[in-house]
# Entry
Amino acid sequence: MMRARRGFSLLEAIVGVAIATAFVGAIAVFASNLGDTRARLGRSAAELETADAVFAEVERACATAVVDDARLGAGIAGNESSLSLVRCAVGLGEGRDELLSDRSMVRVEFDGARGRIALARGSLRDELPAPVRAMRVRYLADDGWVDAFDSAEHGAFPALLEVSIWFERGEASAAEAPQPPAEVEGDAAPAEETRADRVRVFRIAGAPRIDPLAIRRLREERGP
# Structure
């Protein structure tokens, strides 16, 4: 005796569709989260690469910087958004560098329109990968932090260089993130809400010494 074949009931079909929908939804959420995680990791890697490239270049130049050079000009010169450094190094004949000279120049430049930092060595210019919202360079002179400096005019290096970078992280994060200070009054350190994403302070070989009281005051201004 043959038994009649039984199909799915309406309730069973509805349950099956609900399970399949939930499964597809879970996969979509997982894929979306995975994509977001990969994007965050890629952004973090680009930011790390950008900051490390800038800081390594400035640190290397500060180790052998010269106050003034007859051909290349001031050893350390710049403003809030750009910095040029002349150091003792073998020139490779790029731009203003003479072939096999004993001086080389490097520039760190922030292009606000493009939102990128570039490193320029002679005629070579490398644009770094991470989107940048702002970069600020400060120079510690005799009268405190200043936003421009020229070692040829002063006949000496600044006591310290400070480079701060604020990264651009999309419209939503940019709206939530603090804006960098447009201006710093006197020796006041930036307020807590304007703290940069990456900051590095550099000591130039041969720069004027900083007395202990000034160091203590600087640490208090920077905070923990």
